[in-house]
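Table S2 (continued). Query chain:
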Amino acid sequence: MRIGHGYDLHRLEPLTPHGAGRPFVLGGVHVPHDRGPVGHSDGDALLHAVTDAILGAMGEPDIGQLFPDTDPAWAGKDSAHFLAEAVRRMRAAGLRVGNLDATVICERPKIGPVKSAIRSRLAALLGTAESSVNVKGKTHEKVDAVGEGRAIEVHVVALLVAA
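Corresponding output:
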């Protein structure tokens, strides 16, 4: 078995044209919100952290090394593309997801209403059962940029096992 931890944080700003925020996507699911992540790709902090957790479990290069934000080819790219590459590498190594546990930290939007859809989407992208995927939503109790609604933070732990 192999264990990996993934982390990501994105600044949240008003959506264009009033700011630099992209539409809010979390775990491949569009979430209605007046702010969105600032990032080179679509800014999906959850998929970025999942990708890094899988890559980290295998000792592979991280998402920034494989898909640098200095490369215009990744501008606005759907983060499912990055996760698909991590899953491809995982399968090539003879591994599969045993379980994945994600913690999404933001004041708004509340993820409770979309948590089931996010869990389903993650399971599909990972090629695993929904029972192997957990998603939790937490706040920062109004402390720091995350608590003030100016950022989103995600932690993911992935357990990979022999396929």
